[in-house]
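Example record

The entry below shows one chain as it appears in the dataset: sequence first, then structure tokens.
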Amino acid sequence: MVATGTSRNEVPATLKPDYDRASELKAFDDTKLGVKGLVDAGVTEVPRIFYQPPDDFDKTSVLSGDTHSSIPVIDLEGIDKDVTKRKEIVERLGEASETWGFFQVVNHAIPVSVLEEMKEGVRRFFEQDDEVRKELYTRDLTRKLVYNSNFDLYSAQATCWRDTFLCIMAPDPPKSEDLPAACRDIMEEYSKQLMKFAIILLELLSEALGLKQNHLNEIDCGEGVAVLCHYYPACPQPELTMGAGMHTDNDFFTVLLQDHIGGLQVFYQDKWIDIPPVPGALVVNIGDLLQLITNDRFKSGGHRVLANRAGPRVSVASFFCTGLRETSKVYGPIKELLSEDNPPRYRETTVRDYCSSFDETDLDGTSALPRFRL
């Protein structure tokens, strides 16, 4: 699945002198209806604010359908009953975390019915009456519930073809009545199930690092979670824009629930590789903070989402960290992993300081990790 276009040799609209990007961004933001509002209005051409630099498409080719270029799908069935199988699973998780930084998980104990209802809840939120959505629209990222289009709208080089609402579900979840009525019950149930899965996952990752089973849980890698619900409307010109540009995640790890449409890709060995939807599966990727505390043993995988004509695409990305929340907890390379041959490569930081530094990057797909290297 290679993104191609017809306007690669033209002067990008963002460079034309008659293009007032700031005004167009504000006009788009002021609608409070996001990308979905454009599609509902019948737009047939992608507005210039969404044009991505051609290099974002042409940097590499994309492999798809090659079994040697597919992220691992790991079956957790029997991890508590079969010692031999658990060891095999731990080895596979470790290998995937050290190479891809991505893997899919099946038989994770979250009922498929909960996964399906969570996706339907996201659709209900975005497809409810415009006036209801408008009331929730905000750019105040300190709120526990944030709905808007592109958190980095005014600072990113290009706008992405995506709307999002975010809920901070741990460690201090909002009151039930403060969650959107369209998805209130399923948000709470999905989050509860997700936190149980996170404990199991962190135990397995601890074992993969050769640490005691509870190590990552005891240092609170699963303490906080922000649930980001994404809506990618059908795009009339997917060759001009992106659902999400290349980036890494500024957390310990991310658990992604995606629907059947596809478009998620990971950057691996200088190629963009599709991560195809697997029914009932969750996609897990290593975040920057886990790369930092494992001293580069686990890799934070760069990834992106292609725009496509087949939308709306729905996904739910759960970011495990406490974000910008005030905390005195300091994280650095885990001492048990260090040695004379493997000295610390990063300075210590709080989650808040790391996330703040991440937000200050140029938003061009560059990780903030180099800022913390010793």
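Notes for this example: The longest helix spans residues 184-208. The chain has one domain: 20-372.
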